[in-house]
Amino acid sequence: MNATNIIDLDTMTNSYAECALWSSMHFESEEDACGTSFDEVDAGISEKCRENFRKDCRDFLDVLEREGIEIGDAMTDEQIGHDFWLTRNGHGAGFWDRGLGTLGDRLTKWAEVPGSCDLYLGGDGLIYCD
Q: How many other C-beta atoms can be found within 10 angstroms of the C-beta atom of residue 59?
């Protein structure tokens, strides 16, 4: 069984999006030093951003399959989505700190490849990602 057959893409993507909103900050202005977590902003995620999230997760799973990386029972689909967001964005937590040893190192390596992703509030009041 390969990674893409074991991991539910919808569950992973939903967790990835939830973590993105929770860990990303929106600043009202340049003077807004503290900001507000996007999960507290009254705005929906744009369809384009949702598509990008799904594609990012799909691409990550494709890499796992190509590289023969089996997660097995080491993590839930939710944890994979959550840790993929945190790891790719350089937060202080992620795959590398779960105590997974070599598996955590390999997941970290491939999660960092796409680089970081930032959220922003569009003029239409929806959340976008770059």
A: 13
What is the number of alpha carbons within 13 Å of residue 50 lying toward its C-beta? Answer: 7
Residues 6+ apart with CB under 8 A from 76: none
Domain holding 40, by residue range, is 3-129
Q: What is the pLDDT, as a whole number, of residue 1? A: 38
Whole-structure pTM value: 0.89
Q: How many domains does the chain have?
A: 1
Neighbours of 89 (CB within 10 A): 19
| DSSP code, position 45 | B
Q: Which of 75, 99, 89, 70 is nearest to 12 (CA)?
A: 75
